[in-house]
Fold this protein.
Amino acid sequence: MADVLDRLVGQDAAVAQMRHHVRRPVHAYLLVGPVGVDLHEAALAMAAALQCPTHGCGTCATCRRVLDEAEADVSVVERAGVTWRVEELREAERVARRRPLGSGYQVVVVEDVELSTTGGVATAATLLKSLEEPPERTIFLLTARDLPAALDTLVSRCVVVRFRALRPAALVAALVAEGADADAAAFAAGAANGDLRRARVLVRDPALAERLAGWRGLPERLTSQLSGVMGLVDEIERGLDAAMAPLVAWQADEAERRRAEDRVPGARATGRREQEASDRREQRRFRLEEIAWGLRLLSEVYRTRLVEAVGDTPGPRASERARASLRALELVAEAHRRLGTSLDEVLLLSDLLVSLAAA
Ligand SMILES: [Zn+2]
């Protein structure tokens, strides 16, 4: 039967490395993978494999508590803003110094550590001392999308486990194996950017095709009128809200399943609150992914325009169209870069649409 690590579909190399390490762990791991790879799921799976008496069976009380984020000796450290603040990382250090309540480890999960560098100053340096001289039974599980140079020292203190983006074919195979219709699976996989959990939500979403058409049709509807732009942004926001519905419904199903299961002896009363925080984090990630998908669709439209302009009869009109398409592609790429660190998606989208209308 598949254990917790087997559930990380399409990550054979990373899984083999983790499987080796959970039996004789070192004190810090850094899980690295591109946007789309569910590093949160990977960190929890590794935490379960570390705590479980049989290294991650997936079915025992310990595994279930860890995966449901209700295990006292596995802490996912919270941050309030987009980037990490020093005080928040000090909280991670404080948790790391606690002795585990059970017979396993004190596992401290800190996600997105690349967001701990501001202006070249690595806030993550706060963690260095703990990583150098950790308490005996403490294990850090850090995650990052990429590894900026400012994190070099931190990286050198960890065993790095690399994950790769899943190819659409792997997503389709996983969805079909779970009972999805092949066409719906292919459509959802195309919009999921290598992210299996996102694909699982999208395959249940009847409005996916409509949102795809909405993003693709956006360039045709741009206007220099600010009120027109705000109308388009409103429409996108409503689409994003609607896109969240299948995820929220799924989270509710999972909560129901957890309630229906026999409550595990020793389950913490705080489990529910932690689960809600985890659900909210997932909703935030899903929303960002949805916007990133929209931006990729916009890029496709402008790339097609560029190719058409280049293939056109040479002349001032063709070169003007090529220039405008290139400019639009740059603007979309810039919005994509800002996405991870922008607090205000409405501002980001309206900035983008205003600049695209002028391009
Ligand atoms: Zn287990």
